[in-house]
Design goal:
This protein has 5 helices and no strands. By secondary structure, it is an all-alpha fold. The protein has one domain. The longest helix is centred in the first third of the chain and has 27 residues. The two termini are about 25 Å apart.
Length: about 120
């Protein structure tokens, strides 16, 4: 199930990234362009996460945590930047830094999950 959610998330994040990039190219501003970049380079990661969980190189629980952290981080970071660009208002005070910190944590949890998968227990 985590694999399917990661694929769904990867597709949606990629689509949002393309849409935000297109809008940014027509005067959306630097903040929207940065939000689009973050979405676009995290979309393939979410697809890769599905493959890692499917292959049991990353355990299902670790994969679920990584997925949740990436989605939360992207929503806070990219969401805050996009709202600032499109509406002129932040998501909430410190949303972007909190989202950025959450993305860093997600990458670190992913790195640590190298040792949690089923295939890793035999080694």
């Amino acid at each position: 199930m985590i694999e399917r959610l990661a694929i769904l998330a990867g597709g949606l994040v990629g689509a949002l990234g393309v849409a935000a990039s297109a809008r940014a190219s027509h005067g959306g501003g630097e903040n929207l362009a940065i939000a689009a970049e973050f979405l676009l380079f995290h979309a393939p990661l979410l697809l890769a996460l599905a493959a890692l969980v499917r292959s049991s190189l990353v355990g299902a629980r670790a994969g679920a945590l990584v997925l949740a952290l990436f989605l939360l981080g992207l929503a806070l970071f990219s969401g805050d930047l996009a709202l600032r660009a499109l509406v002129g208002q932040p998501l909430f005070r410190m949303a972007a830094p909190l989202g950025g910190g959450t993305l860093i944590l997600a990458w670190l949890v992913l790195a640590g999950s190298a040792f949690t998968g089923e295939k890793n227990r035999d080694r």
